[in-house]
Write a structure and sequence with these properties.
Elements (H helix, E strand, L loop, with lengths): L1 E4 L8 E6 L5 H13 L3 E4 L6 H7 L5 E6 L1 H11 L6 E5 L9 E2 L3 H9 L3 E6 L2 E7 L2 E8 L2 E6 L6 E7 L2 E8 L1 E5 L7 H4 L12 E6 L9 E3 L5 E7 L2 E5 L6 E3 L4 E6 L4 E5 L5 H10 L10
Parallel strand pairs: 2-3, 2-4, 4-5, 5-6
Antiparallel strand pairs: 1-7, 7-20, 8-9, 8-19, 10-13, 10-17, 11-12, 11-16, 13-14, 14-15, 16-19, 17-18
C-alpha cells in the first residue's frame, strides 16, 4: 500500500532524533538548530532508554528521525510503529538500504518533510512471542526478522512448524528465519530466501542450512501466524539482530505474526526506486562478467 501525504498537512511540532554510535554531537546539534529556527521542538532519544523514558519523549512526537545506518533505523522502527509515528532515515552508515537519504541531504530532506512534499510507505512489522509451558516469557516486535538458531551443545535444531494452527512439517536445520518483506533483503536473503517487494504484507520462512535439500523457503499470505516449536535444541532467538538473544528450550514455542500496526516510512523517492536500490546497494542484476 502506498499513500501520499498532501501538501498542507498539519505542520510538525515535535521531532525525536535517534542516532547511531558513529554520529558526532555537532551533527545532532545541527538538527536541533535547524528545528529551533522553525520553532519546532527537537529531542534526542537514546537507543538504550528505558520504556518510561521512551514513552515520555515520544509523547506528541510527529516524526522520528534516525541518524545512522540500518541498525539505527531498525531501532527507530520498533518505537515508531506502535505509536503511528512516521520515521525518516538518514544514512550515516555503509549500506543504508532502509534509510531514505544520505547525511549530506539531511537539511533538504527535513525541509521537504516539513513542507509536506513526501509520501508515506507502509511496512509490515513482525511481532514475536515465546511461550513456555503455556506462559508467555518473551514479547518483541521488529521490522526485519526473527532468527531461531541452534545454541549451546546443539549442533542441529529440530523444529516443528505450524501455520494458522495447522501442522506444516518438521525440519532439521541450523535454525530458521521468519522475515517480513522488509527483512527479505537482509539475513533471509543471505540464507537463500526470496526478495519480496517491501510493501507486501506476506511473511517468509527461510530454513538455515537445512539437512534435507528439499526443505526450501516458503512465502505465507498476510495474516498467517507461524509457530516454531523446538523439538531438539536448545536454541536462541533474536529479533532484528539485536545483541541480546533469548534462550529457547525444548518444548518452547516461538510464534511469529504481523503486528497490528504497520510502520509509516517517509519517502521522497518514487515506489519504483526500490529496484534501483537493489542494484545500487546489493548489486542485483549487475552482470559479474563485464559487457564487451
Amino acid at each position: 500500500m502506498h499513500s501520499v501525504s498532501p501538501i498542507g498537512t498539519a505542520p510538525a511540532r515535535k521531532i525525536c532524533l535517534i542516532r547511531g554510535s558513529g554520529v558526532e554531537q555537532h551533527e545532532v546539534d545541527s538538527v536541533f538548530h535547524s528545528m529551533r529556527a522553525r520553532q519546532i521542538e527537537a529531542v534526542e532519544l537514546k537507543r538504550d532508554a528505558k520504556a518510561e523514558m521512551v514513552a515520555q519523549l515520544l509523547r506528541n512526537t510527529d516524526l522520528i528521525l534516525t541518524l545512522g545506518g540500518d541498525g539505527t533505523f531498525l531501532a527507530g522502527a520498533r518505537v515508531a510503529a506502535p505509536r503511528d509515528i512516521p520515521i525518516l532515515g538518514v544514512n550515516h552508515g555503509h549500506l543504508g538500504f532502509l534509510t531514505e537519504i544520505e547525511a549530506e541531504e539531511m537539511e533538504t530532506g527535513l525541509s521537504r518533510y516539513l513542507d509536506g512534499a513526501y509520501r508515506i510507505e507502509e511496512r509490515t512489522m513482525l511481532q514475536v512471542t515465546v511461550v513456555r509451558k503455556g506462559q508467555r516469557t518473551v514479547y518483541e516486535i521488529g521490522l526485519n526478522e526473527v532468527v531461531v538458531d541452534h545454541s549451546g551443545e546443539a549442533r542441529i535444531l529440530r523444529l516443528e512448524i505450524d501455520v494458522a494452527g495447522h501442522r506444516v512439517g518438521v525440519i532439521d536445520a541450523d535454525g530458521a528465519i521468519v522475515a517480513t518483506a522488509s527483512g527479505s533483503t537482509a539475513y533471509a536473503l543471505a540464507s537463500g530466501g526470496p526478495i519480496l517487494e517491501p510493501t507486501l504484507e506476506d511473511l517468509v520462512l527461510v530454513p538455515m542450512s537445512p539437512f534435507a535439500l528439499t526443505v526450501r523457503p516458503i512465502v505465507f499470505a498476510p495474516g498467517k501466524e507461524i509457530s516454531l516449536t523446538v523439538v531438539r535444541g536448545p536454541a536462541e532467538m533474536r529479533v532484528d539482530g539485536q545483541g541480546r538473544g533469548h534462550e529457547v528450550a525444548i518444548g518452547d514455542v516461538v510464534s511469529c505474526g504481523s503486528h497490528a500496526k504497520r510502520l509509516k516510512v517517509v519517502r521522497f523517492s518514487p515506489p519504483e526506486s526500490f529496484y534501483l536500490r537493489l542494484a545500487d546497494k546489493l548489486g542485483w542484476g549487475r552482470p559479474l562478467v563485464p559487457k564487451k
